[in-house]
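Input record (one chain):
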Amino acid sequence: MDILSAIGNTSLVQLRKVVPRNCADIFVKLEWENPSGSVKDRMAQAVISRAEEDGRLQPRDTVVEYTGGSTGTSLALVCATKGYRLQIVSSDASSQQKLDHMAALGAELTLVPSEGGRTTKKLILDMIEAARKLSRKPHTYWTDQLNNHDSIAGYYSLGEEIWSQTSGRINAFVLATFLRSGTPRTWIKSCRSKQTTRRRWPGASRGRRGSSQGRLPVQTFSPRSRSRRGWGEMTRWSR
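The corresponding structure, as predicted from the sequence alone:
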């Protein structure tokens, strides 16, 4: 057993003191229990394992990625455990603590200069291009997090854990992830967009909204929206 065995199976605890009266039962998943302290450990393990399985990543190869810190720290953990050299492209816009954390886990850092310490579109594109150049070297595997669908598989277990820990009794979920096809009364609420969309559970067959399989409603809201409104909506869904 190694440290990667400690990824996942994190605790689910109920909030009791910081929620409004008569609100829904609110539970939080403690992803800081993962070895690096981040949910990104799940995706890092998935992208490396899947690349190993299909031969894209070979023993003694070098892994390359661009990151602001969290993904890089998780990749550094996985690569250190599995014995891969890791080259991280980051920038001086990232916190020194994140840079130090990646380096402490064995990552070799290439820092792209930012404009006054700001994370801009140009900085991200420059980081991507720097990673692309490194990836052209022989025996190098670029995880390319924004385009690598293997990362999605890392979060399947998160959804399964939540489903199991709640015995399937979940009406709303904040921050999109993947849960197994189950009840049409489950809502996913994402804090990353102002738009309202509908999505399907992975693997769910087509069906009417009232059936146990098919389309499930997904509502997203802006982080700037009033928190009380969000609590009220969640309370209404749970009844």
